[in-house]
């Protein structure tokens, strides 16, 4: 494809520039250090081996899924013939097998296959049978839960391939896991999922291989000296593999175990999140799930209780900016709540655990009740802004647009679909009585339903004529009230005559209207319903309802047209992490990786350090082998031959002279601030040229530990865009290959919808502004330091369009090539789901970085990376230049590509069908893999008029103090019908403030002290009360951090009727705090004063 | 409003806040005050602080929370108590959480223990670390342990610090006896070392703890009962067992022999965790029967109130009680335990406390530090707490390890140092009975009245429930209820 060739050509052009620059010998190496990565197979072979495996992987890839390839490869490697009873060799092969398999599972992108597995051993059960033991290490975390879990499954597959028995744990070993999990959570850090002791027992007792590991933390268990467990410390890696892996990802593990016909994993069903069929009734019962609000955090509002009336309504579909865990919410809802901005994370009840919020305005917005009694639908952001301060109650939060793929990805049964326009239109189109000539022009409206709003008599007419249910707009939330209430309402409605509108006298019946979500106004003592809504109500409630638990069913017995359940599925949610877009700065933020010890003060300012004649720092230097001149360059400054980097050591350098010369080299007059680092963390301790720091300082950009310049943003998906919304003109886009819109029409106008090319990215304006400075820095560097031509010559952010970037996620080591195609006002980076998946990210509030490609090529060096475990994570060790959707994280394969949700999905959602049962009706990426359609024609079912509507910044970030954040949180809780305010207050206290204070009181009484001068830490204060350097010692846990939440907590406790249990906990805490911070003597003396 | 205070002040009497507030609320506070002053003066003016108890006594105010001790009184003989509080840190918390307090806390620990150590003949000639000179002579030093490590060759390295400097002491593993001794060292204890200075190291030839001299056993003409970890309010509190225990104390239960012992009981010592408390660990509310701390203490008052009133009850808080969590913990505050306070035969003291029971010095400590000791020293475990107590006695400190699980308040004086060797050391916390007589000292851990909890199951702790140690005229008996 021309697109990829174009990207590769441009990449090559940048490489050439970098090669020329590096060849000057001014850097640590004479060529760029980021090799281009080829395909997955070769990445795997390069990363973990064994030699020649790439070919075999490619062979198998032809007709097998990636998981199947991984398992097969593992079995093949492990079961190679070895000499009789050569256990050592067998262990080595098993070790190799699991690493290779894990590398395949993680696409050769992350460090886990190298660092996450310490070793594999064959050990003996107490009945003398042999089993397989896998030793996990901390960095298994970088594999992610699924891959970690699958590596355990791989181990079992290997075990069977080499005919070993299962691991038979004894009770003490099982209990040891239980204790370790508890200890890990209390002493080290929280697990993503906290299993109950019995869950750990179940897993530990049944996993057929031993999941063990290296000690990771200095915490000892009480079940010590077990014969088969080598360490008495916590085995963090093993716990991650077991808990965040096998237990947390149980449904997925089970799925693959079944696929591979692996026996002995059925017990996992007990963990499966998807509700199982109720055996007695053969009917699936899905219960409300409150896991997402087990923790309520201060300042992060609960938006809806689990499955509560008035919560978000489930609507199936995918917009051009949703999928991959990003879900659509109406921008009016976002505007109203203010705590949801584009990219804000929500923790949700289902189908997954979290998502990212993006605006979609072709779905239903909120219904609110104003202080004057009016109830209205809020259908645009402008109205939302206008009425915000008048809102008394948010009766309904509006829709949440969830892609079918989200249910598929989470293996969650389908939930009953909300009754919506696009479904209604399909029912007409499929009606036998609807004529072929499409009199209602539905082929158009099926995608533009917002433009087709019949009045109520018309709606009834359509329903009668084509025998379809009533239009969703005239279908109210009947299931949220009882039959009795509906009868009361009906009686009330009959007290007035329907004219242009229906005027009723105010009474308690109004509340029923509110709950039903019927828009109305209140004028004095009269309630006024508009003609259409009144018509719909009166004609729906055509007769008195018979007693029934099912209000909708009762209505259907009297209504002339069929009434659907408007919101059969409500989804609970709370606000999670706020969105982010910000340049990456270390603390303190250096301009250059040049060590100056403590000479530069706490800001590490090089000009300050240079005021000293010379400084002594630990530094690496290079020596010329021929003329013995020592320098900090890869080519000898005097003779030009390649230098050799020597051992680092303490050296005295004349920083003032170096700085002066560097400034002259790049002709920058004296800068007040050029920040270096205290010491180098790499093993060579070879510094960057000072010139780079001077130029970075001049352009106000900062470097990361690997000498690249990063900008971090929340990841959001995007498959289509319009030139107008990304702020790029049509001409420029045509140059970049966007010649047609997504419907195949010539691109001419800036509101046409274009399909995003898979490596194109839409960066935030904040990011663009930073990259402009980075580009200027790179140009300065080329011109003044390397003596080459300027390359970027950008002045405004628009000039960045078409330039290449590298995207890189934490815990991975492979960057992905991207191209800037436009800008968003949102605090996020919009890119194709493939692009995010290639970095192994999804869009439930993951964030990662972009670099300007030439900056990375010129400045990145492995030699700056620390040599410790995990040091190579988050560094661009390779650059993937071409995205092949078959070789990226398979989460992206679940992306829906349909322009319409099939009727079948709607209908079968009421039976709680499993997503896999309706897959034949679904068009998604999975089905397009390996065909040209994998790159184009990925459609969306719901359009949105803007990908950055709604607030740009979540209110959480705008409110300065925790007190005010909590205040707003509680105000919101009071306002939203689906939220229990008391529960929120108690939740914040119970899961955030009280544990925080308790933890800090404990921490206070066993804290370390720190020197203000040299930063040395002491576990316990020295008897002299002074640091060895003579500096002042200060507490590391301040009184402030202990009492941080005390006042707010007391305040909340006094203002809301909270559980007395919590009241008392606060009181006792306060007593403890006072006892620690107030001397009884001063209390006594204050009494003296009082007297 | 200050008329009342001024009135008392003129007489040299201070008023506690609460007493003041209550006085103020009376119908005629000025007259009441005058009456009080007259009465106090009549008593000989020995009160200098007017507390609410004094007020109670004088006006015989019925405490709304008061639960009358229902226990019988044996009228046939009137008991003479020779009960004395030797050390109680309640209301003596002088820390304000500043870093200076931390300095004085550890200086106090070092100085106290150094004084004990320097009385040992072997350490009389100890020198400050800063004055150490290399040479062949054996030197002796006293220091606080900063850190303990093993070298590559598995020798033990001790970082030792005194107020002049620090030094690394090395213990060779070929020196088996000494090496074994060094295995029992913990961080932040104070020790003495004999050794030879070689370069920057001291190679140890001997290590000394402050230690315990064998004490003369005292005659005991009464019995004392020791319990702890009652955990009232928990779903797993064994109420029946506790009630049987109380009936026994009152002479209404048990064999002839057991009743005889009961009749001899003068003191009941409770070493903390009287109630299960609230908010002690996450999710505790799900395991509580009584979710209100005041009600938990009211229930405690009902249960302890049934004990006959001529048995003196001494109570200290544990980590579950309503007190601060940092040790030393002040006595259970009256605020939460009003009804318990209304029992006239109960003494509320700090954790730890030292009391004299008719001449027998009894050191009461809840035992939080056992967690750290069991973690730090190989061979020590929760089910053998007598071995831990032995170590603590040798180290002469109840909670030597700083920075682990036992929160320590930086009091200006280290009250956790064992200044005096007691006749009895009574602890709890681990829920497992233990007893040992060590150099004449009775080491008693008194188990629990709580059945095994889920938490204990995870940590593999099998509690001994309702097994009550009784020191009967110098001999230990354990009765099960």
Automatic annotation (TrEMBL), chain A:
Superkingdom of this protein's organism: Archaea
Subunit structure of this chain's protein: Heterodimer of a large subunit and a small subunit.
NCBIfam families xrefs: polC (TIGR00354), PRK04023.1 (NF003103)
Keyword set, alphabetical order: Coiled coil, DNA replication, DNA-binding, DNA-directed DNA polymerase, Exonuclease, Hydrolase, Multifunctional enzyme, Nuclease, Nucleotidyltransferase, Transferase
EC number per UniProt: 2.7.7.7, 3.1.11.1
Organism ancestry: Archaea, Methanobacteriati, Methanobacteriota, Methanomada group, Methanobacteria
Record protein name field: DNA polymerase II large subunit
Pfam families, A to Z: PolC_DP2_cat (PF24846), PolC_DP2_central (PF24844), PolC_DP2_N (PF03833), zf-DPOE (PF22912)
Domain DNA polymerase-epsilon zinc finger: 1007-1056
One term of GO molecular function: DNA-directed DNA polymerase activity
Domain DNA polymerase II large subunit DP2 N-terminal: start-end pairs: 2-273
From TrEMBL, chain B:
Reactions performed catalytically: DNA(n) + a 2'-deoxyribonucleoside 5'-triphosphate = DNA(n+1) + diphosphate; Exonucleolytic cleavage in the 3'- to 5'-direction to yield nucleoside 5'-phosphates
Domain spans labelled OB: 139-196
Keyword DNA-binding among record annotations: yes
Stored InterPro entries: DNA_pol_a/d/e_bsu (IPR007185), DNA_pol_delta/II_ssu (IPR024826), Metallo-depent_PP-like (IPR029052), NA-bd_OB-fold (IPR012340), NA-bd_OB_tRNA (IPR004365), Pol2_small_arc (IPR011149)
Example of a GO MF term: DNA-directed DNA polymerase activity
UniProt keywords, alphabetically: DNA replication, DNA-binding, DNA-directed DNA polymerase, Exonuclease, Hydrolase, Multifunctional enzyme, Nuclease, Nucleotidyltransferase, Transferase
EC number from the UniProt entry: 2.7.7.7, 3.1.11.1
DNA polymerase alpha/delta/epsilon subunit B domain segment(s): 225-428
Gene3D superfamilies: 3.60.21.50, Nucleic acid-binding proteins
Keyword Hydrolase attributed: yes
Listed transmembrane segments: none
Protein role: Possesses two activities: a DNA synthesis (polymerase) and an exonucleolytic activity that degrades single-stranded DNA in the 3' to 5' direction. Has a template-primer preference which is characteristic of a replicative DNA polymerase.
Subunit: Heterodimer of a large subunit and a small subunit.
Similarity annotation: Belongs to the DNA polymerase delta/II small subunit family.
Name this polypeptide is given: DNA polymerase II small subunit
Source organism: Methanothermobacter wolfeii
Gene name per UniProt: polB
């Amino acid at each position: 494809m021309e697109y990829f060739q174009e990207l590769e050509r441009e990449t090559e052009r940048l490489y050439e520039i970098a090669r020329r620059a590096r060849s000057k010998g001014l850097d640590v190496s004479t060529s760029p250090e980021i090799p281009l990565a080829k395909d997955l197979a070769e990445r795997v072979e390069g990363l973990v081996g064994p030699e020649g495996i790439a070919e075999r992987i490619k062979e198998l890839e032809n007709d097998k899924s990636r998981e199947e390839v991984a398992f097969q490869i593992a079995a093949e490697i492990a079961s190679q013939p070895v000499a009789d009873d050569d256990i050592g060799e067998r262990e080595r092969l098993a070790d190799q097998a699991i690493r290779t398999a894990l590398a395949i599972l993680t696409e050769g992108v992350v460090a886990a296959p190298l660092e996450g597995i310490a070793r594999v051993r064959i050990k003996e059960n107490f009945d003398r049978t042999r089993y397989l033991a896998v030793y996990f290490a901390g960095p298994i975390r970088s594999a992610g839960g699924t891959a970690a879990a699958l590596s355990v499954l791989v181990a079992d597959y290997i075990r069977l391939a080499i005919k070993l028995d299962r691991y038979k744990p004894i009770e003490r070993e099982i209990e040891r896991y239980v204790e370790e999990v508890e200890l890990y959570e209390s002493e080290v850090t929280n697990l993503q999922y906290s299993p109950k002791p019995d869950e750990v027992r179940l897993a530990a007792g049944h996993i057929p291989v031993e999941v063990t590991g290296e000690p990771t933390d200095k915490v000892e268990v009480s079940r010590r000296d077990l014969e088969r467990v080598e360490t008495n410390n916590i085995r963090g890696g093993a716990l991650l593999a077991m808990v965040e892996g096998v237990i947390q990802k149980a449904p997925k593990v089970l799925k693959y175990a079944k696929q591979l016909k692996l026996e002995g994993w059925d017990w996992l069903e007990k963990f499966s999140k998807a509700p199982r069929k109720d055996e007695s009734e053969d009917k699936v019962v899905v219960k409300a799930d409150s896991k997402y609000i087990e923790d309520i955090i201060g300042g992060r509002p609960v938006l809806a209780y689990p499955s509560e009336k008035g919560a978000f309504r489930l609507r199936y579909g995918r917009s051009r900016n949703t999928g991959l865990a990003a879900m659509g919410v109406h921008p009016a809802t976002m505007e109203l709540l203010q705590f949801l901005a584009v990219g804000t994370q929500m923790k949700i009840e289902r189908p997954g655990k979290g998502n990212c919020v993006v605006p979609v305005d072709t779905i239903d917005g909120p219904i609110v009740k104003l202080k004057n009694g009016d109830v209205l639908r809020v259908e645009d952001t402008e109205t939302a802004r206008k009425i915000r301060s008048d809102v008394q109650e948010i009766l309904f939060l509006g829709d949440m647009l969830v892609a079918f793929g989200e249910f598929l990805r989470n293996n969650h049964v389908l939930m009953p679909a909300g009754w919506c326009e696009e479904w209604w239109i399909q029912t007409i189109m499929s009606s036998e009585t609807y004529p072929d000539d499409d009199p209602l022009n539905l082929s158009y409206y099926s995608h533009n339903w917002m433009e087709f709003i019949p009045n109520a008599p018309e709606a009834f007419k359509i329903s009668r004529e084509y025998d379809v249910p009533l239009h969703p707009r005239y279908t109210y939330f009947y299931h949220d009230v009882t039959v009795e209430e509906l009868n009361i309402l009906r009686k009330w409605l009959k007290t007035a005559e329907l004219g242009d509108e229906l005027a009723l006298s105010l009474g308690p019946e109004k509340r029923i209207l509110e709950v039903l979500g019927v828009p109305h106004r209140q004028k004095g003592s009269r309630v006024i319903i508009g003609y259409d809504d009144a018509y719909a109500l009166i004609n729906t409630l055509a007769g008195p309802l018979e007693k029934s638990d099912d209000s909708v069913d009762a209505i259907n017995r009297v209504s002339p047209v069929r009434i659907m359940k408007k919101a059969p599925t409500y989804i609970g949610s709370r606000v999670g992490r706020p969105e982010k877009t910000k340049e990456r700065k270390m603390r303190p933020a250096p301009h250059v990786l040049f060590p100056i010890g403590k000479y530069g003060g706490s800001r590490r300012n090089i000009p300050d350090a240079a005021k000293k004649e010379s400084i002594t720092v630990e530094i690496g230097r290079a020596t010329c082998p021929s003329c013995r001149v020592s320098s900090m360059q890869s080519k000898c400054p005097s003779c030009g031959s390649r230098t050799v980097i020597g051992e680092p050591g303490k050296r005295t350098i004349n920083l003032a002279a170096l700085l002066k010369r560097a400034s002259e080299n790049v002709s920058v007059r004296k800068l007040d601030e050029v920040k270096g680092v205290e010491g180098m963390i790499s093993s060579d301790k070879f510094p960057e040229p000072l010139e780079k720091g001077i130029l970075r300082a001049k352009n106000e950009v900062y470097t990361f530990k690997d000498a690249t310049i990063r900008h971090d943003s929340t990841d959001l998906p995007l498959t289509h865009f319009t030139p107008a919304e990304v702020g790029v003109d049509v001409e420029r886009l045509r140059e970049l290959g966007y010649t047609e819109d997504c419907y195949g029409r010539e691109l001419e106008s800036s509101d046409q919808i274009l399909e995003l090319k898979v490596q194109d990215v839409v960066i935030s304006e904040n990011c663009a502004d930073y990259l402009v400075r980075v580009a200027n820095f790179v140009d300065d560097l080329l011109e003044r330091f390397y003596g080459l031509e300027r390359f970027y010559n950008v002045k405004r952010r628009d000039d960045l369009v078409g330039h290449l970037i590298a995207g890189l996620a934490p815990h991975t080591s492979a960057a992905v090539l991207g191209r800037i195609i436009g800008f968003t006002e949102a605090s996020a980076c919009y890119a194709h789901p493939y692009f995010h998946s290639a970095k192994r990210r999804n869009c439930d509030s993951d964030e990662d970085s972009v670099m300007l490609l030439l900056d990375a090529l010129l400045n990145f060096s492995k030699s700056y990376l620390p040599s410790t475990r995990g040091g190579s994570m988050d560094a661009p060790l390779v650059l993937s230049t071409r995205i092949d959707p078959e070789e990226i994280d398979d989460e992206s394969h679940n992306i829906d590509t349909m322009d319409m949700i099939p009727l079948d999905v709607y209908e079968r959602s009421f039976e709680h069908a499993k997503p896999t049962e309706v897959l034949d009706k679904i068009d998604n990426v999975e089905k397009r893999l390996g065909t040209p359609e994998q790159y184009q024609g990925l459609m969306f079912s719901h359009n949105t008029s803007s990908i950055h509507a709604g607030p740009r910044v979540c209110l959480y970030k705008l409110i300065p103090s925790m007190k005010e954040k909590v205040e707003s949180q509680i105000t919101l809780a009071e306002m939203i019908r689906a939220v229990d305010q008391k529960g929120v207050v108690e939740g914040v206290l119970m899961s955030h403030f009280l544990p925080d204070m308790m933890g800090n009181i404990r921490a206070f009484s066993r804290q370390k002290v720190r020197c203000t001068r040299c930063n040395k830490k002491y576990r316990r204060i020295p008897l002299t009360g002074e640091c060895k350097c003579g500096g002042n010692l200060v507490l590391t846990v301040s009184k402030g951090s202990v009492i941080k939440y005390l006042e707010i907590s007391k305040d909340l406790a006094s203002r809301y009727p909270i559980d007395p249990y919590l009241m008392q906990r606060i009181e006792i805490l306060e007593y403890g705090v006072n006892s620690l911070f107030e001397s009884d003597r001063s209390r006594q003396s204050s009494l003296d004063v009082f007297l | 409003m200050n008329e009342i205070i001024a009135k008392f002040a003129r007489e040299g009497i201070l008023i506690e806040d609460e007493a003041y507030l209550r006085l103020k609320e009376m119908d005629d506070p000025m007259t009441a005050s005058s009456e009080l002053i007259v009465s106090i003066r009549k008593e000989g003016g020995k009160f200098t602080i007017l507390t609410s108890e004094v007020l109670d006594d004088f006006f015989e105010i019925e405490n709304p929370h008061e639960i009358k001790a229902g226990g019988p009184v044996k009228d046939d003989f009137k008991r003479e108590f020779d009960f004395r509080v030797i050390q109680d840190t309640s209301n003596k918390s002088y820390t304000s959480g500043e870093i200076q307090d931390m300095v004085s806390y550890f200086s106090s620990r070092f100085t106290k223990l150094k004084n004990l150590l320097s009385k040992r003949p072997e350490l009389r000639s100890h020198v400050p670390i800063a004055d150490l000179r290399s040479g062949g002579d054996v030197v002796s030093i006293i220091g606080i342990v900063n850190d303990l490590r093993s070298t590559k060759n598995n020798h033990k390295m001790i970082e030792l610090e005194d107020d002049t400097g620090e030094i690394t002491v090395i213990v060779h593993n070929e020196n088996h006896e000494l090496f074994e001794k060094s295995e029992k060292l913990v961080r932040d204890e104070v020790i003495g070392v004999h050794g030879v200075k070689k370069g920057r190291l001291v190679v140890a030839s001997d290590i000394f703890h402050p230690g315990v001299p064998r004490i003369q056993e005292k005659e005991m003409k009464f019995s004392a009962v020791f319990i702890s970890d009652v955990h009232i309010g928990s779903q797993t509190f064994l109420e029946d067992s506790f009630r049987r225990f109380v009936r026994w104390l009152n002479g209404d239960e048990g064999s002839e022999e057991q009743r005889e012992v009961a009749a001899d009981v003068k003191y009941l010592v409770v070493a903390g965790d009287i109630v299960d408390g609230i908010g002690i660990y996450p999710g505790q509310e799900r395991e509580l029967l009584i979710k209100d701390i005041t009600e938990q203490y009211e229930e405690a008052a009902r249960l302890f109130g049934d004990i006959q009133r001529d048995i003196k009850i001494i109570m200290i808080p544990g980590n579950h009680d309503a007190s601060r969590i940092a040790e030393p913990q002040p006595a259970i505050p009256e605020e939460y335990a009003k009804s318990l306070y209304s029992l006239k035969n109960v003494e509320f003291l700090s954790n730890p406390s030292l009391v004299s029971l008719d001449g027998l010095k009894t050191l009461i400590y809840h035992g939080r530090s056992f967690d750290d000791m069991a973690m730090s020293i190989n061979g020590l475990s929760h089910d053998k707490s007598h071995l831990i107590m032995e170590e603590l006695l040798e180290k002469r400190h109840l909670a030597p390890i700083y920075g682990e699980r036992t929160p320590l308040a930086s009091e200006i004086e280290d009250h956790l140092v064992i200044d005096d060797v007691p006749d009895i050391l009574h602890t709890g916390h681990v829920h497992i009975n233990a007893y040992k007589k060590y150099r004449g000292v009775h080491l008693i851990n008194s188990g629990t009245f709580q059945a095994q909890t889920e938490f204990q199951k995870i940590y593999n702790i099998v509690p001994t429930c309702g097994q009550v140690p009784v020191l009967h005229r110098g001999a230990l008996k354990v009765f099960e209820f």
